[in-house]
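STRUCTURE:
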């Protein structure tokens, strides 16, 4: 099974070139040409020493060609199921922006997920393995290629696909570095959001990096008991401690942390819960991102979660805003395709 070229950073490729008997100076140019190809056919722009291209091609240089399934929704949302070198699959999503020349990407950090969030389709297949740095970068390249084909610019990415990014932190950080770096992915640090269910040591590790990405924390409930029903990780990390860790991140960056809150009918969408959430936010300058739920069938606990009605969702948002919180809705994307995280992969596995 050949390794992805995107698994190698510059210094590792320099070492590899030296081992093969070539000058390490070719590494930077090779990587730049590779990233510019957006995961398509990799053609070095300048002549290479004899035999070097063949050596480089011993790595997997065309991750995009491994797209197993591509679904396009009526609103332009494009969901990709990418086949990994070991034949496992992973989901990535391109979401068109309101502006018709921009798009956002959602990428995965693990194959499957061990977190067991009860409303999530990904968790139903369990955890299989961490993605490598190159496999994360390959998703970015695949989405950027999709965006360019649709005459859009990929402006932002969020780690909100399959998996918990803070449980694959080294690979995620190495990938973010390559994606953000002007010489390679050139997306920029501020265009990257890492979204977590609230693994406190991981949040503190992100804070310690000093790097300038955004942090989003999935609360989905304003009290520990409700949250623990929805997110088993809530039994380990209480909301107060998670928010304290988010405070530390926010203080170190000076930019608001986003609180993700998926509205579920009769579970977490009452006026009292909106007030409780507003109280938690209090003087914190955090933004609440209200998410529309895409149903995924019976949950692990046998619950058929439903999305809150538009009216209830609007009332919830109004209550938050009246209490001084900043709250906005994340648009529902691609409702006519397998929009929920993990759904496409699961359907594909069921069919094969
Ligand atoms: S919501 Fe995210 S963290 Fe929770 S099970 Fe799904 S993929 Fe994992």
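SEQUENCE:
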């Amino acid at each position: 099974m050949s390794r992805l070229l995107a698994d190698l950073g510059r210094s590792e490729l320099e070492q590899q070139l030296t081992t093969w008997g070539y000058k390490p100076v070719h590494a930077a140019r090779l990587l730049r040409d590779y990233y510019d190809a957006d995961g398509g056919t990799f053609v070095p722009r300048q002549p290479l020493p004899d035999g070097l291209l063949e050596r480089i091609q011993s790595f997997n240089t065309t991750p995009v060609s491994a797209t197993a399934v591509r679904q396009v929704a009526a609103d332009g949302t494009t969901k990709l199921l990418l086949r990994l070198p070991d034949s496992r699959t992973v989901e990535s999503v391109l979401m068109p922006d309101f502006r018709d020349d921009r798009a956002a990407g959602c990428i995965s950090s693990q194959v499957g997920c061990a977190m067991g969030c009860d409303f999530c389709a990904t968790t139903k297949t369990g955890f299989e393995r961490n993605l490598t740095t190159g496999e994360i970068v390959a998703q970015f390249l695949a989405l950027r290629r999709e965006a360019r084909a649709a005459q859009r610019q990929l402006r932002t990415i969020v780690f909100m696909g399959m998996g918990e990014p803070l449980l694959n932190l080294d690979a995620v950080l190495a990938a973010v570095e390559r994606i953000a770096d002007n010489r390679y992915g050139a997306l920029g640090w501020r265009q990257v959001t890492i979204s977590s269910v609230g693994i406190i040591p991981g949040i503190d590790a992100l804070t310690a990096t000093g790097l300038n990405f955004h942090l989003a924390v999935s609360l989905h409930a304003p009290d520990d008991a409700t949250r623990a029903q929805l997110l088993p990780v809530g039994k380990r990390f209480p909301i107060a401690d998670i928010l304290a860790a988010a405070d530390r991140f926010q203080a170190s960056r000076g930019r608001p942390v986003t609180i993700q809150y998926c509205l579920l009918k009769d579970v977490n969408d009452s006026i009292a819960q909106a007030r409780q959430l507003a109280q938690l936010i209090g003087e914190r300058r955090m933004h609440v991102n209200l998410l529309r739920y895409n149903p995924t069938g019976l949950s692990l606990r046998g619950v058929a979660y439903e999305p809150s009605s538009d009216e209830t969702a609007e009332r919830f948002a109004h209550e938050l805003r009246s209490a001084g919180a900043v709250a906005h809705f994340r648009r529902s994307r691609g409702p006519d395709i397998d929009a929920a995280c993990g759904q496409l992969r699961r359907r594909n596995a069921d069919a094969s």
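REMARK: The two ends are 22 Å apart (CA to CA).
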